[in-house]
Amino acid sequence: QETAHVSLDHLRGLMGIEPATNILSVDLEALAAKIEADPWVAKAVVERELPDALVVRVEEHTAHAVVAAG
Questions:
Q1: Contacts of 51 (CB under 8 A, 6+ apart)
Q2: N or C: fewer beta carbons within 10 Å in the chain?
Q3: pTM confidence score
């Protein structure tokens, strides 16, 4: 799912899964950890949707302040 700061293209890049990958061979926890490495992502949940899809839910960090430097 796309969020305000994580586009679908960026999410696909974070996942790094090639087309035609067998979704049964995907380590869902490791994939969620890769997505959570993005600074905007607070939590990611990855689930299999058989027969051939992965569902990704992303929760973003909330910015609480903006600092202007300079």
A1: none
A2: C
A3: 0.82
**What distances in angstroms separate CA 41 from CA 18, 47, 56, 69, one per listed residue?**
22, 17, 12, 24
Per-residue pLDDT of the chain in tens (70 residues, 90 and over written 9): 778 889 999 999 999 999 889 999 999 999 999 999 999 999 999 999 999 999 999 999 887 777 777 6
> Under a CB-based contact definition with an 8 Å cutoff, are residues 11 and 35 in contact?
yes
Rounded distance between C-alpha atoms, residue 41 and residue 52, angstroms: 25
The tokens describing 65, both together, are 């302040």
